[in-house]
Fold:
Amino acid sequence: MRINENYKNLKESYLFSEIAARVEKFKSENPDKKIIRMGIGDVTLPLPQVVVEAGKKAFEEQAFSETFHGYGPEQGYDFLREAIRDYYKTFGVSLHMDEIFVSDGAKSDVGNVLDLFDKDNTVLIPNPVYPVYFDTNVMNGRKIIFAEGNKENNFLPMPSDEVKADIIYLCSPNNPTGAVYTKEQLEAWVKYALKNGSIILFDSAYEAFIQDEKLPRSIFSIEGAEKCAIEFCSLSKTAGFTGVRCGYTVVPEALEFEGMSLRKMWLRRQTTKFNGVSYPVQRAAQAVFSKEGIEQCRKNIAYYMENAKIITATMDKLNISYVGGENSPYVWLKCPGGMTSWEFFDKLLSEAAVVGTPGSGFGTAGEGYFRLTAFSSKEAAKEAMERLEKIF
Ligand code: PLP
Structure:
């Protein structure tokens, strides 16, 4: 028996454990200080009531043989896929039901989709970015190159004809930077992918946070993307489903490589290795897309966006440069005074008892930057920013 040697190439993912260790140490040395956590990437507001009711009702149905549901349809129930299709229509994207695959979240699909691609493909990954793209490709032993996000490109790396990439990851709105690609910028990526025969894996997990209607919420609002892109989305941040688990992936019918339909390959992959999302969760997810559900989710997102405003207003006041926060729950700031990400982390923790996330944890290009998130309570965001003002 031989193991997958590629696992030896994975770097220890020490970011969150290191944060926890430093916070624990601070707590034991300063038992009276109230710590404010502004680093969490998880939602904090409870589920919309209409979603809870739908889930409860569906669970009740499972108690009677007349309404009991066993294994569901392969790609997800029609009622949910119809709701997703209609949701996409609201921002001008028309999808076929066959192109929508319901899943237990974007993370699994983003990782699992690699089953469809040869190990010899070259992968282009933004830096900094959600670490899952990198780690899942290291596990498969693929060659990885980076597209650096920096101050000059507003943390929105663009394609270059000098770089040849087969698999391209784009995350917009981006985690951790909060930067969002414009339509023109995505058009450039689609043009590159079509010209080079590459595929774009587009992660739109934070699309619901986009406030500016001119910014694209889906790669499929770009002409030609149906021939070169797969989109991953999730109800985790849209509707507070991080603990419920439901997402969806769109694989267009027009997506063909080497005479093979990627939609058919993904269907084969999913039906072989995945048995679907539970009926009650799919009913709850359907309720997210109801009129009332959308309104309640928007309200929750508006609450987080108020927090983002509190953060960015403080950054403006303190003359700390940042991106994000306008169309995303993340604010990505430059550590003042040339501090490294961890130096800034330690200063914030020791002098303000505020916890954030060091940017270097999201890739080498994140060094010297810091991520604050809007997923706290308003009171916490306000107090954290008041403390920041005092130390700067
Ligand atoms: N994609 C991005 C960019 C994320 O930041 C996250 C979660 O933080 C996910 C995907 C995971 O989403 P899910 O909870 O649906 O697995």
User: Anything to note?
Assistant: Residues 41, 105-107, 130, 171, 175, 203, 205, 234, 236, 242, 247 surround pyridoxal-5'-phosphate (CB under 6 Å). The chain has a mean pLDDT of 97. The domain at 49-290 is CATH 3.40.640.10 (Aspartate Aminotransferase; domain 2). The longest strand covers residues 122-127.
